Amino acid sequence: MRVNPLFSFKWFSAGLIWFWLGLFVLVPLLMLLTASFLQRGETEFVKFAFTLENYQRIFNPIYLDVFWNSFYLAAMTTLFCLLLGYPFAFLLARVTGKYKHLLLLFVIIPFWTSSLIRTYAMVIILKTNGVMNSFLQWLGLIQEPIQLLYTPAAVVVGLVYSLLPFMVLPLYATIEKLDIRLIEAAKDLGARNVRIFWSIIIPLTMPGIIAGSMLVFLPALGMFYIPDLLGGAKALLIGNLIQNQFLSARDWPFGAAVSIILVLVMSLLLVLYYFSILRNSNNRDKVGL
Amino acid sequence: MNDLVIELKQVSKSFDGVAILKNIDLEIKKGEFLTLLGPSGCGKTTILRLLAGFETPSSGTVLINGEDMLQIEPEDRHINTVFQSYALFPHMSVFDNVAFGPKIRGVPKAEIATQVMDALRMVKLEHLADRKPAQLSGGQQQRVAIARAVVNKPLVLLLDEPLSALDYKLRKEMQIELKQLQRRLGITFIFVTHDQEEALSMSDRIAVMNAGKIEQLGTPKNIYESPNSLFVARFVGESNILVGEVIKVGDDCVEMRLENKIISLKNTKNFQVSQSVNLLLRPEDLHVYDEDEGIPPEPYLHGIIEEVIYKGTTVDLLIRLDSGKQIAATQFFNEDDPKLDFRMGERVFAGWLEGWEALLPSEAAENSAPVSP
Amino acid sequence: MSLKRLSKISYMSLIYGFLYFPILILIIYSFNDSKYSFAWKGFTLNWYHQLFDNQELLEVALNSLMVAVVSASVATLIGTLTAVALYRYHFFGKKVLYGLIYILIMSPEIVMGISLLILFIALSMPLGFWTLLLSHITFCIPFVVITVFGRLSGFNKAIIEAAKDLGASEFATFRLVVLPMLMPAVIAGWLLSFTLSMDDVIISFFVTGPNFQLLPLKIYSMVKLGVKPEINALSTIMFIITLIIVIIAQSLLREKK
């Protein structure tokens, strides 16, 4: 093949993106990793001396508590998103007719809408003289307004509210691709619905489940403004911890170490995702789909 | 001296270590309609892509008009392609699709309009010039693709299974139109297909391909009547293939034992005694006689009708020979002829005119290349 | 209507209600003529007037708009070139690049935010417009790449070959065939990048300086102080803008073939 020495479109494009991602993603990540092994500086942000202390500090009960709390809230969020989102995505994928695109669009819109604004909307709903309390009083379930805002439950509700579309869309994508004939074949072979669900539908939609869980679980660990606005000071997430270390406590090396933990969690989930896809495509090859 | 427009010399191509083409030699004359015929994966499309310049040969030379094409990019080759999927530009009108080539080559604007309309008139689409491809039927899209290619007056037009997406009737029509177009334009056509009927009815010459090699190159008549391998015989048309052994070789005749019978035929290929041979018989070359018509002239085979398949203009018979082998025979239907009233279980003779058979030395690797046309 | 169908429809309505009810309340209250009360006190455009009289807020909005327009444009350029390169060519590290882009979409924003902060501090760049711009471009690129790549993979590869076959050079093929066919996805990519940039809180939070405010950060600091009708109005405007942009982008992406 001839190469135009002045302008090779191919090398220009490939070079540009590698340069950009290298400079603004890979180099910063390496710096983050390096910083996590350095000591806290007196005048500068870091002192160039190797230490493992930042990682050891994570095992300090105060921080372990934050980790536990954060993982717990993120896991609850993921679970609720999955429980609410799976049947919804399933029904959405089975909708036929001209309104299907419209219904899908109504899930895509919140996906792109600012989650800060949506969190703020949740504040209006949950605050003491807000919509929820008035509604409960009108129902006669409560006499006096109760504390809804600034509770761990409010944080989970806010996270679920913000992240539900991130669970639904990948689920929808895999369920949509699910071959309905497999379900029919299973029924034809006499399988009951419960059995079909656990042994056919769930395994085949596993990549979507894991992708959705990833898109919910990871942000749920990091979205510091949601506990900030809905949880008050009580619910501290990993995101809040990192934010504090960088902007208030000014302990960058420790903040970096905590962030590296997030990266590790992400890598673990990515590996899980990769294997679920691999297993699915292997199965598919075996039955010749 | 050279009236060759394309020469392939010892061309090989492999992808990831898998050989797709093996030492292909092929010469194509100016103005010829040549068809590359073969099953999918035989390498016929790869030859087309080598000529168009989308692939480079792993070894060997591709010459177009005597010029080595190794360093020449597709856009600089005076060759155009009609793609299997048509590959029309969806965002352009029919006119703009056809005008694309002339525009790129810098043809003056006024001239482009005439050239494009001429090309569209040629494919009878001048009234649809403003439409978008998506608004056209499959057959119309096909014509646009042809107009878009021929407007550039290429040395060679490459057609990659251009009719495969059309329904049967439209395909028949387009076959005739393409053939007429080629005659009128005098452009060399290289046509790729897996449809043997299409190849036989359109081509000046056919190259039958199998597993990266050209099995036989010849006129349609030559290919059909004298296949030089079992593959060609099986791929082009239907054949009954019988296995026999030479028992006597005369001056110009050969005697063989075939299906428990001694048969004497003309020796055209220097067979040797005790050599194993394949006798190929086209079903339509067999004439079937009732037993009560008396014994027919040699050569013939004897058997029982197992199945009668009524086809409208013909009746197809499956006959179980006394040796146990099943053969097919096609009888042309004549409603007034009571003799065509074949019944299952009837004993019959299947005879043919000497010389209508094809006799091949049996191939050692015969079973290694199963055919599914 | 069968009971089964009814329960399906009610479940879907319930989820849609959950997704939209709070936003709806927010929009309604942006027109409520009462500063504190939950009760409806009549329709007013007062809060919107106040919003447009607030010079500081308008300036911040302009900042956001500027960052969003420039970063969406640069990200669209780079992202489109990347998608085309990924689709058309084989080059070193192609698979890694492809994986990296997907990982970037999945990775927690907070990690990107602080690692960029470290980079900018290490390079002694003053935090503000430029650092925000570079960061926004970076997190928008992957979204453009997958939007454009998605459309490219729907293409018939033979169309590009057809252009070359008819004599078009690599560049002419890109300009006359690939780009026009990609245009809807490119515009959609731009629009989605624009909303991402307009709405981003987490990354901007780390890489901005004291002298350069963006709208979401401003809203964040206002919300921390409590619920105010002006915020309702501002949020309503931002939601409506996102709504329009997403609808346009989706219809562009749907109009295929």
Structure report:
Chain A has 13 helices and two strands, in the order αββαααααααααααα. Chain A is mainly α and 289 residues long. Chain A has one domain (60-286): MetI-like fold (Orthogonal Bundle), CATH 1.10.3720. Chain A has a two-stranded antiparallel sheet with strand order 1-2. The model of chain A has no long low-confidence stretch (mean pLDDT 86). A six-stranded mixed sheet of chain B has the order 6-7-8-3-9-10, sandwiched between helices. Chain B has a five-stranded antiparallel sheet with strand order 13-12-11-14-20, with no helix packed on it. A five-stranded antiparallel sheet of chain B has the order 15-19-16-17-18, with no helix packed on it. In chain B, helix 2 (94-104) crosses helix 3 (109-122), helix 2 (94-104) packs parallel to helix 4 and helix 3 (109-122) packs across helix 4. Chain B starts with a strand and ends in a 12-residue tail after the last strand. The two termini of chain C are 37 Å apart. Chain C has a single domain (54-256), classed as MetI-like (MetI-like fold), CATH 1.10.3720. Chain C has 257 residues and is an all-alpha fold. Chains in contact: A-C, B-C.
